[in-house]
Q: What sequence folds into this?
């Protein structure tokens, strides 16, 4: 079966799950989760939660006196990235649908809690999380964000992000300073955010991840639909940035960060395993890339293929951009 046929089957399966989740009351899904807690039940429970969040506020589901503590995970992350963000947003959805406040205690091999590096603690300072208020949690049970998320899903995740993912004051101050810097360049002109995913992603074509568009497809859209705009670029490969600069000159702008050209091909590594010789490099790699997504979320328009980064930009921007050109060619 070709990719188009597989994509159709995935959509039909999801539609069926949406229908089933919608007709059964939330109270029943909660009971089924506590009794079984397998991934299928968890997915249906979370779909029900998104259906409710699309119409109501988080307070409709959460009473504020129960917590769901996440202190382990099936995945191991080497650095703060957007796969990690998808993972914990899924956990936030699971906790919220069960009526609990999410608490993130997951640390990596170095003992780093990425959530607390970038975001304020969700529970109030000094507040205790007692064991009798904690739901049991299976580390395999929280679904991530679908690549072709619907408007209902996007609204739900936007509400979760706004509620629970509050940037630390110092991080926000530095991000806002970068945003002001870019806005001074852009002025009153139109602006377009562009994500160009390259490096190991395009080289290895990871199964189940979105197929990336060719840069020629991006250029064609920019020339036809945004010919006079400034183009703000987030990419892990400087070669792609330079291709746009060669085409559009000074209208291509970005923020400072490291790039992985010539490294990932040579060492056959995923870029999350690559480090640079500078103080606090591990934190800075996450900080710099997320800074670009923060700036992008404040612009007028976006043009990109689907990826963890572009999906996160769509969630960070509520209600949405003036114009969104999302190129989706299915999955590898």
A:
């Amino acid at each position: 079966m070709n990719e188009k046929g597989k994509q159709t089957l995935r959509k039909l399966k999801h539609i069926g799950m949406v229908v089933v989740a919608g007709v059964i009351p939330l109270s029943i899904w909660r009971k089924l989760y506590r009794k079984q807690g397998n991934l299928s039940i968890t997915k249906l429970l979370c779909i029900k939660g998104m259906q409710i969040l699309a119409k109501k506020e988080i307070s409709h589901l959460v009473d504020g006196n129960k917590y769901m503590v996440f202190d382990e995970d099936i995945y191991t992350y080497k650095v703060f990235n957007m796969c990690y963000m998808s993972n914990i947003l899924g956990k936030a959805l699971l906790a919220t649908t069960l009526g609990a406040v999410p608490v993130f205690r997951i640390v990596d091999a170095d003992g780093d809690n990425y959530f607390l590096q970038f975001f304020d603690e969700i529970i109030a300072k000094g507040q205790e999380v007692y064991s009798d208020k904690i739901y049991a949690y299976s580390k395999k049970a929280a679904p991530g964000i679908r690549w072709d998320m619907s408007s209902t899903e996007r609204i739900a995740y936007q509400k979760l992000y706004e509620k629970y993912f509050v940037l630390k004051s110092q991080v926000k101050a530095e991000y806002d300073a970068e945003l002001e810097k870019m806005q001074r360049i852009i002025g009153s002109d139109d602006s377009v955010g562009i994500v160009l995913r390259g490096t190991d992603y395009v080289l290895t074509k990871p199964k189940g991840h979105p197929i990336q568009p060719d840069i020629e497809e991006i250029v064609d859209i920019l020339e036809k639909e945004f010919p006079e705009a400034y183009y703000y670029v987030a990419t892990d490969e400087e070669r792609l940035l330079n291709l746009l600069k060669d085409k559009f000159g000074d209208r291509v702008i970005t923020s400072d960060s490291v790039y992985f050209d010539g490294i990932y091909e040579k060492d056959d590594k995923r870029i999350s395993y690559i480090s640079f010789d500078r103080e606090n490099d591990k934190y800075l790699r996450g900080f710099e890339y997320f800074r670009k997504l923060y700036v992008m979320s404040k612009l007028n328009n976006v043009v990109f293929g689907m990826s963890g980064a572009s999906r996160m930009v769509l969630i960070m921007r509520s209600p949405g951009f003036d114009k969104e050109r999302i190129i989706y060619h299915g999955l590898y």
Summary: The beta strands are 67-70, 101-104, 191-196, 230-235, 252-253, 301-305, 323-327. The chain has two domains: 11-164, 169-327. The chain is about 45% helix and 10% strand. The first strand starts at residue 67 and ends at 70.
